Amino acid sequence: MDFLPIFAKVKGKPCLVVGGGEVAKRKAGVLLEAGAQVRVVAPEIDAELQAEKGVEAIAARFEEGHLDGMMLVVAATNNREVNKLVSLLAQARNIPVNVVDDPELCSFIMPAILDRSPLMIAFSSGGASPVLTRMMRGRLETMIPQNYSRLAAFAERFRELVKSRVTNPPKRRIFWENVFEGVVAEKVLTGDEASAEAMLQQMLKNEDNIRRGEVYLVGAGPGDPDLLTFRALRLMQKADVVVYDNLVSKPIVEMTRRDAERIYVGKKRDDHTLRQEEINDLLVRLAKEGKRVLRLKGGDPFIFGRGGEEIETLAEEGIPFQVVPGITAASGVASYAGIPLTHRDYAQSCMFVTGHLKDGTMNLDWDALARPKQTVVVYMGLHGLDTLCAKLIEHGLPDSTPIAIVQQGTTQNQRVISGTLKTLPGIAEREKPQAPTLIIVGGVVTLREKLAWFHPQKS
């Protein structure tokens, strides 16, 4: 993050715009809308800008004295040397300065603004792409109607009352979300604020009925944030606490609510931050404290994610919960690696198994796995690769059967190592792939060279 997003209170404060043309007029207009006292300095100043109420127009070349008493400065001339001088002098005085279309000379950026006052949304690319920034603002213009300003003002009116009546912060957050997602908001948006106020007052009388807490068991997919579901994103923004494991990528964790508490619970091979039973108990305790708990799990919670064990405990304790499926690693990783799990010429069935070693052995149904025209996907099987290949050969698969290891699938660090049941253990010994990995066995692996090229992800 190159710039810290902030909102500056400039109402009644003196601000300087250096430049007198069309760009300067736009920048001065934004400052005037925010209530600033605007001083404009330039040898020639647009007539409309000079006539603007609240503008002090000075027809002169910029001098350092024009900075006296200014809260912030905008340089908007067509002369880079003048802009650079303004920037250097302002920064020497620790006055925030923006130089239009020149990020290197800026100490702050003027963002594109979506104004639904008192709700304000600002967009910035740090000067990298103003056009893209304006496009993003345009898209949200259609998604956030103008009357959302009315909803924000309504919430402001009752903020202190709600705070005094709903003293528990997690419950208060839930209360407001119920307001914004329910009938009260609909009444405000349609202009019927009297009915909305009556409904809100009734909700306050029933404050004790607000749920004490809830758990969201959400599948985060195999790593690429683009593979999250809309529902997952919505719940990620609602949660008060995020409980996540080692298979959830950092970019996905960063998409959760910024002020939410984050608790890492492992797990890596032979390194479990908490045992599964302790994780189950943690979810129950947090929910009983009145918090909305996001249990973020790599892939899909119900495919080798032990999600069933977690919701079993929640159900026994009477904790409300929601389950959001995610794209399991087998589907996402195989797709990004260019390996279809089924194909008319190579595989008419697919099996998912876990390759966890127990006491140095894999307890799998080898006869069922070692069948022709079938794809086998092995989760968590890297440390048992030698055993896996040997057992499949022992139970009837040709040692020439294609097999691939996909490391950190769907991410920019994706890596694919392929070979055969006979050769891959040796190749892996040399290449030393690191978890998390997925192993795919079957004729479909041979399609990778043809299909992976078409996928935007590197492999």
Would you kindly provide a written description of the structure presented here, covering whatever features stand out?
The chain is an alpha/beta fold. The chain has four domains: 14-110, NAD(P)-binding Rossmann-like Domain (Rossmann fold, 3-Layer(aba) Sandwich), CATH 3.40.50.720; 148-209; 214-327, Tetrapyrrole methylase, N-terminal domain (Cobalt-precorrin-4 Transmethylase, domain 1), CATH 3.40.1010.10; 331-454, Methyltransferase, Cobalt-precorrin-4 Transmethylase, Domain 2. Helices cover 36% and strands 19% of the residues. The protein contains 17 helices and 17 strands. Strands 3-2-1-4-5 form a five-stranded parallel β-sheet, sandwiched between helices. The protein has a five-stranded parallel β-sheet with strand order 10-9-11-8-12, sandwiched between helices. The longest helix is centred in the middle third of the chain and has 18 residues, at 148-165. It is globular, with a radius of gyration of 30 Å. The two termini are 28 Å apart.
Give descriptors for this structure.
36% helix, 5-stranded parallel β-sheet, 17 helices, Cobalt-precorrin-4 Transmethylase, domain 1, 459 residues, Rossmann fold
